[in-house]
Specification:
Blueprint lengths: L11 H19 L26 H13 L3 E14 L3 E14 L3 E8 L3 E6 L3 E6 L4 E6 L4 H12 L13 H6 L4 E10 L2 E9 L4 E7 L6 E7 L8 E10 L18 E3 L22
Parallel strand pairs: 6-12
Antiparallel strand pairs: 1-2, 1-11, 2-3, 3-4, 4-5, 5-6, 7-8, 8-9, 9-10, 10-11
Length: 287
Amino acid sequence: MQKLVRIPLLPLGRRLATLLAFSLCLLLVISPGWGAEPAKAPPAPPAAKTTPPAPDPRLILQKMCDFLKSQQQFTYKAEVVDDEVYQGGKKLQYGIDMETFVHRPDRLRVNAQGDLIDKQFYFDGKTITLYDKDHNAYGVLAVPPDIESALAKANQEFGVRVALTDLASPNLWDFLNKRIKDAIYVGLHKVRGVPCHHLAFDGDKAHVQVWIEAGDKPLPRKVVMTAGQAPGSPAWMAYLYDWNFSPQLQDTLFVFSPPDGAQKIKFIPLKSGPSSKTKPDKKGGKS
């Protein structure tokens, strides 16, 4: 008969302590939140976002001027809206469709047809001719043989100035920069679906807004000029479109041929009279 061996029992308190210690060791081995791996640190808060500085409006305008200056020839169209002030500040709005042809250094032509005018401007490298189709009359000025000098003489001596022809000047940036007193970058806005840099400039006599296409070709897409010092603060606005930098321009395009019955008239120099107009315009349009 086998002899029974007694296993001494631990007192109840010691048994509970031993059981808890064993359970704790087991918990340290199998629990995912305990053991040898340290707890991961909480993620760092995101860095505060800084607003990038606004683009320089003068630099954008200069890039536009430099791009146009680099083109030997180009054409574009413009849809113009012009305010006319009457009766103590009231305004009427008239439209003009314009088409401009540029061939540097000595060719320029503009066709302008609208509610009040139907005129054509020619520069053939020797003379400037302004033709008024409504009156079937034209005037001719002898001018220097380059676009910049020809436009300057026509404007300074006879008051002849045709809208948007400054875009053909190789010195466009110098001309504009001298007149800018203040400039702001408004934002990136669309002009007829084209993303553009919207710029605003203040000069001595006018407030000007320009929308310049964003991208590789910084083209002017819209221009608004407001004459704040003039009665009624009239505005002049142009949408520019259909730019072409590889047109086929023949020399004959820039040479004026008088139509049958056309009357040749003389321009009046500014020093000889208050205006360069040679006869009143029956529609009230500008020269």
